[in-house]
Specification:
With about 300 residues, the chain is of the alpha/beta class. Helices cover about 30% and strands about 20% of the residues. It is globular, with a radius of gyration of 18 Å.
């Protein structure tokens, strides 16, 4: 079966779930069967799954159902939430399924997001929460993402490597606790916040996270631009979305070319956009420089 979706009707889904996978390599083998006809990227680890796929509505429907019900997956992904958006640009040029040590690196060993997380806050309640005076609003993304767009009043922890966020929190945790501050944080789809909050709870911080991330906020709040400045970077060929989940004219060069430190990101974006369209990758994980921030 061809791995090239119909470009006239391409949809994008993003999904993740923290769940115990005793044998992620076996799970990867099953997913290679279930993703026929789709393009994108899936990361698997003992802690769960993190994926982005694109294809026709029918192919995505079939995948979503199979991921949750296929007997070979032992209900590990039952209840997975999928965020679906329409595309003008085909988001991916290939299909990659990797087994990695983590589905989202935090730079802190031993964090178990399957056991606990911070308080999930609905988009409707988030709008009020981030205006309250005892709240510290943290952007849990890379610096280049923050530069492209952010919630009003958010703090940029200057993340240039996935360890930077944890370093920033450790440097300020005592101050926040002394001031009786609550921490509210957000990321693109929710996965970075979910893992970070599990660790931050152990630091004694009251942590709140935007349910479903920025993309869910845009989907649920028609006037999201009241709280959001700019665009939202997405880790695919569409590059950026506005608050109505529509692609913008922003290019990879607009995002990365101004910072020499991001030259590898620009080169990588160009390489991924070029294909090949039928590649399915598995096996050893790429280095931390490969794609530590993807959701």
């Amino acid at each position: 079966m061809s791995h090239t979706p119909d470009s006239a009707a391409v949809l994008h889904i993003a999904f993740y779930k923290f769940t115990c996978l005793p044998a992620p390599e076996q799970t990867a083998a099953v997913l290679r069967e279930l993703t026929q006809g789709l393009l994108g990227s899936i990361l698997l680890a003992h802690e769960g799954i993190n994926g982005m796929l694109a294809g026709s509505a029918s192919a995505l429907d079939a995948f979503e159902a199979a991921l949750q019900t296929d007997a070979r997956l032992h209900s590990a992904f039952a209840g997975t939430v999928f965020k679906r958006t329409a595309c003008q640009t085909a988001p991916f040029a290939r299909l990659k399924i990797h087994v990695k040590p983590e589905i989202v690196p935090l730079g802190v060993a031993g964090v178990d997001a399957t056991a606990k997380t911070g308080v999930n806050v609905s988009p409707q309640d988030w709008r009020k929460l981030i205006t309250e005076p005892d709240v510290v609003l943290l952007d849990n993304r890379n610096h280049f993402e923050f530069e492209l767009g952010r919630f009003n009043g958010a703090i940029d922890p200057q993340v240039h490597n996935f360890r930077d966020f944890a370093h920033y929190v450790q440097a300020h945790a005592a101050e926040w606790k002394a001031q009786n501050k609550r921490v509210a944080m957000y990321c693109t789809g929710g996965i970075r916040c979910e893992k970070s909050s599990a660790w931050m709870l152990d630091l004694g911080l009251p942590v709140y996270q935007l349910e479903g991330g920025i993309l869910n906020y845009f989907a649920q709040m028609p006037n999201a631009d009241k709280d959001w400045q700019g665009e939202c970077f997405v880790f695919d060929n569409r590059v950026a979305l506005d608050t109505h989940l529509q692609e913008t004219a922003t290019t990879e060069e607009d995002v990365f070319a101004g910072d020499p430190g991001d030259a590898w990101r620009l080169a990588r974006a160009r390489r991924l956009a070029a294909g090949p369209a039928s590649s399915v990758a598995a096996g050893p994980a790429p280095s931390a420089a490969g794609k530590p921030e993807a959701e």
